Amino acid sequence: MEKGQDSNDRRAGEVRSAVEAATWAPSVHNTQPWLFSFGGDRISLRADGDRRLGVADPDGREMLISCGAALFTLRVAVRDLGYEPEVRVLPDPDRPHLLADLYLGARTRSRSDDNSRLFEQIRRRRTHRGAFKPEPVGDALLTLLRQEAQREGAMLRVLEDQYSRNAVAALTVAAENMHHLSPSYAGELARWAPSPGSTRQEGVPESAYPREAPPTDPHFPARDFARGHGWGTEPSILDWLEEPVAGVACTLSTKEDRPVDWLRAGQAMQRVLLRATQHGDVAAAFHTQALEVPGLRELIQTRFCAGDHPQMVLRLGTVGDKFETVRRPVEQVLTEES
Ligand SMILES: Cc1cc2nc3c(=O)[nH]c(=O)nc-3n(C[C@H](O)[C@H](O)[C@H](O)COP(=O)(O)O)c2cc1C
């Protein structure tokens, strides 16, 4: 009896640490739109619909990409504990908010070094905003990252020529302007952009973006988290280089556009980001504004993704200092099933 209790306690501690790791996944506006529960040898992941961006993300596509990123992180963390997990995605059509059940499965005797390397990147990975360092992202790494996306059922495409890059950057400018015209969008952004000194552990704090960033060529505009208040961190040396480096502009897309594909895209994205972090501190800057405007998303689909559905627009590049980020404590997102 005592022994059984000990092993239950140990398992609860392990689940807690794996879920804690999963919460370090990226999420749109750092909404952290996930809830976890566990009972027996199962960890369940649910979307927290109250945290969906009702204006920017009415279908919950970005919410599910965020949850997919958390699911991939959970898979890595559980493997790092020595388990061989089995994942059932969207296991119950009557409960669409139940996104995945992860069964811990048997403990394997040896941990994989490759998985451990991914695990080590979970807390090191950060979203970048602004220009990159001049060190280019090598072709070998880009090939590896494309393969990593494919392993999760998504496609990472580099915008190879300057006209494609310029066009997608210009569509991002158009989307950013359209967002500025929408008071409801501005209100929603304000909710997730806490003012300096705030103790909130969600949203995008001023320590996560530069105060000023000179335009890169082409210029992919950032989300306006500061909203004219002059918030943001002091410009880093990178932002004052003579030629601010835009990095490698890419899209991440899927063949279909259903909730299961959004979860796939999120898992693929996080696999790519962790692998990139592992190789020479390559990070991503995201520019998903145009994907929130249906006509612009369609244009990116047909002209730049060969008909596949774009899920993310990002730039990859080398970073030095990293921005900061915040997370809610694991207790707020994890419950034990009775
Ligand atoms: C679906 C999705 C869309 C995102 N879009 C943007 C974006 O357009 N601009 C941006 O600066 N960050 C974007 N992000 C990054 C989040 O803001 C970031 O993950 C969050 O603030 C947490 O910070 P961290 O990634 O450094 O941990 C996006 C993330 C996700 C998952």
Verbal overview:
- The protein is of the alpha+beta class and 338 residues long.
- It folds into two domains: 2-124, NADH Oxidase, CATH 3.40.109; 139-318, 3-Layer(aba) Sandwich (NADH Oxidase).
- The protein contains eight helices and nine strands.
- The chain has helices at 2-22, 61-80, 113-121, 139-151, 162-180, 183-191, 259-278, 294-304; strands spanning 34-39, 42-47, 86-89, 98-103, 155-158, 248-254, 282-286, 309-318, 334-336.
- It has a five-stranded mixed beta sheet with strand order 3-4-2-1-9. The protein has a four-stranded antiparallel beta sheet with strand order 5-6-8-7, sandwiched between helices.
- The protein is globular and about 65 Å long.
- The model has no long low-confidence stretch (mean pLDDT 95).
- Bound molecules: flavin mononucleotide.
- Residues 26-30, 62, 65-66, 69, 126-127, 129, 204, 208, 222-223, 286-289, 325 line the site of flavin mononucleotide.
- InterPro entries: Nitroreductase-like, Nitroreductase/BluB.
- One of its GO terms (molecular function) is oxidoreductase activity.
- It comes from Actinomadura barringtoniae.
- This is Nitroreductase.
Question: Could you give a short description of this structure?
Answer:
With 338 residues, the chain is an alpha+beta fold. The protein has 8 helices and 9 strands.
- The CATH H-level superfamily of the largest domain is NADH Oxidase
Shape: globular
Q: Helix tally?
A: 8
Strand ordering within the main sheet:
3-4-2-1-9
* N/C terminus separation: 18 Å
Q: Mind telling me which CATH architecture of the largest domain this is?
A: 3-Layer(aba) Sandwich
- Considering DSSP H and I runs of 4 or more, what fraction of the residues is helical? 25-40%
The total beta strand count reads: 9
Number of domains: 2
The overall pLDDT, averaged over residues, is 95
* SSE class: alpha+beta
In CATH's first tier, which class of the largest domain applies? Alpha Beta
CATH topology of the largest domain: NADH Oxidase
Bound molecules: flavin mononucleotide
Main beta sheet, described? 5 strands, mixed
Unreliable segments of 5+ consecutive residues: none
Which H/E pattern describes the elements?
HEEHEEHHEHHEHEHEE
InterPro entries: Nitroreductase-like, Nitroreductase/BluB
Region (Disordered): 192-226
Protein name: Nitroreductase
GO molecular function: oxidoreductase activity
